[in-house]
Amino acid sequence: MDQKKTSKGRQKIAIEKIEKENDCYATFSKRRQGLFKKASELSTLCEADVGLFVFSPTGKPFSFFHPSMEPVVSRFLSGGGADDAARLAEAFSRTRVRQLNQMIDKIGDKLDDEVEREKELDQVAAKRERWWEMPVENLDKEQLEQLIVFMRNLQSELHKMH
After folding, report:
1. Could you list the residue ranges that cross the membrane (predicted)?
2. Is the pTM of this model over 0.90?
3. What is the structure's pLDDT at 38?
């Protein structure tokens, strides 16, 4: 049986002014996030100092700097050069940011693992919680033993009531 694609997938759009105001705002927001992500990747991959200012269609300013605004702006204003102290500070800052990013990545990986583990445990728990709804023929040995214990406890509780 052939399954056909239900969507057109990623499509190219014409690069022209977006007339609808709400579409313009949504596009700006998405593209700004992508632009900042690329700037971050460039700074990480190439150890480049990056400074980026963007103003939204409403005039709200957004910025991205790596390692931080001060060294990037001072370096830009001084024509690209920096004194030795500033270079050392930038190198230290860049190294520290890289270390922190690596820590964040590791923590993110651990979080992803724990989320996956939680899903697996939820699935196991869901199966175990509803064992009593399954036909007896479908229960495994452990579930049958749980059913017998449950029934005996229920029987005992009922006898106590009468």
Report:
1. none
2. no
3. 92
